[in-house]
Amino acid sequence: MRAVGTVAELWRYPVKSMGGEPLRRAWVGPAGVAGDRAWALLDGEDRWASAKTNRGRWRLFDGLLDLPVRTVAEPGESIPVRGASVPLEPGAREVVAIALPEGDEVTAGTPEADERLSALLGEALRLDHGDGGRRWGRHHDSVQLHVVTSATLAALAGADGAPLDARRLRPNVVLALDGDGFPENDWPGRRLRVGDALLEVQERTVRCVMTTREQAELPRETDVLPRIGRRNHASAGVGLRVLEPGAIALGDAAELVD
């Protein structure tokens, strides 16, 4: 095995196209990071409400990326109910809270959440949990897990010289490593051990207009996508599938398996 870096950031996106949730430790199973893209907003034709669009799969709704999301509890953890601590049963759905611009929160999977989000976005929408026949039981586009390196973020620096903010690429794992350029370009077809999980690198990730959208304190930046096109043939980071489940934590080593 050859060491290639360490885990610098871990991210989960409980609701597709909404705000990301930084983690210190994550369980990676056959469907990727536990709870990642478990929920999505769907329109009346079962198309994803998204920060990008095409005719068949996604509908563009401005403002989705600005909605913060947090996982209140995962299966096996406890949540407060009427003053008591009640454990979620193994196999239960995670409890996910979405913050609205007014400052309050709604819980994914409730009528109130559907009603409030529909009013906010101007169309009848419903939150769908991905266990209803979606790919891997999740709302992923094409792969279970996404990894990008610090070298790639540095190589995509803007005019101010600062590395590209990883949130624009919505990765699950950011690996810190020495070197420059785009090292993960050479990883497809290889296996990567990160923490306790064994992963197979499947493909370079071709980027889209989502990289340019405003989110949280990040402004709209229209040059991001052309910059990725000019410097790395429109790709940044890699998509992977999970061969062996396991835990990944900040600081864990990442090694390419010969």
Write the layout of secondary structure elements.
Blueprint: E1 2-12, E2 21-23, E3 25-29, E4 32-33, E5 39-42, E6 48-50, E7 58-60, E8 69-73, E9 78-81, E10 84-87, E11 95-99, E12 105-107, H1 111-121, E13 126-129, E14 145-149, H2 150-155, E15 173-176, E16 191-194, E17 197-206, H3 224-232, E18 235-244, E19 246-249, E20 253-257
Parallel strand pairs: 6-7, 14-15
Antiparallel strand pairs: 1-2, 1-15, 1-20, 3-4, 3-19, 5-13, 8-11, 9-10, 11-12, 14-18, 16-17, 16-20, 17-18
How does this model look, in words?
With 258 residues, the chain is mostly beta strands. It contains 3 helices and 20 strands. It has helices at 111-121, 150-155, 224-232; strands at residues 2-12, 21-23, 25-29, 32-33, 39-42, 48-50, 58-60, 69-73, 78-81, 84-87, 95-99, 105-107, 126-129, 145-149, 173-176, 191-194, 197-206, 235-244, 246-249, 253-257. The strands form 6 sheets. It has a 7-stranded mixed β-barrel. The chain has a 3-stranded antiparallel β-sheet with strand order 4-3-19, with no helix packed on it. Strands 8-11-12 form a 3-stranded antiparallel β-sheet. Residues 93-257 form the MOSC domain. This is MOSC domain-containing protein.
Outline: globular
- What spatial order of strands do you see in the largest sheet? 1-15-14-18-17-16-20
Q: Figure out the total of helices.
A: 3
How would a textbook summarize the main sheet? 7 strands, mixed, barrel
